[in-house]
Design a protein that fits this description.
With 142 residues, the chain is of the alpha+beta class. The chain is built from four helices and four strands. Helices cover 37% and strands 29% of the residues. Strands 2-3-1-4 form a four-stranded antiparallel sheet, with helices on one face.
């Protein structure tokens, strides 16, 4: 019985030595999309409530988009009105008016720097705890 268990473990170990995760997992989008059409989509979610005080106004939001976002993403962007909701530690549902900002951009260091600058600017300027970021590869055609 001891020999059988040892042999089984040895066979299993030998079989598993060839199992290595690939360095980069290729997505379906990357497999079916021409290289020149591959881009990155980043959506940022900005809450409009200040922790203490009034809501961020439409004028303040537009000033942020015009003065901070557009100069960094000159090719364009899309803004959606959104409503955030979560369950607080106190068991109460919290709701907040929000803005979703969608950017389609190259996957490069400049875009990364600009996105993180926007997140940090917004958090500092409007006393926000966080700005959620969601990234995914996309296939773009004009």
């Amino acid at each position: 019985m001891k020999i059988k268990t040892g042999l089984t473990a040895l066979v299993l170990a030998a079989a598993l030595t060839g199992c290595v995760a690939p360095a980069h997992k290729t997505t379906a989008t990357e497999q079916t999309c021409k290289a020149e059409n591959q881009m990155q989509q980043t959506t940022l979610y900005f809450g409009l409530n200040r922790p203490a005080g009034k809501e961020i106004t439409a004028a303040e939001w537009q000033q942020f988009v015009d003065g901070d976002v557009t100069p960094r993403f000159r090719d364009g962007l899309t803004v959606f009105d959104a409503r955030g909701q979560w369950l607080g530690n106190d068991g109460k549902v919290a709701r907040e008016a929000s803005k979703a900002l969608m950017l389609i951009h190259a996957k490069d260091a400049t875009s990364e720097t600009n996105i993180e600058a926007l997140r940090n600017l917004y958090k500092t300027r409007f006393a926000q705890e966080s700005v959620m970021r969601v990234d995914q590869p996309v296939c773009v055609q004009f």
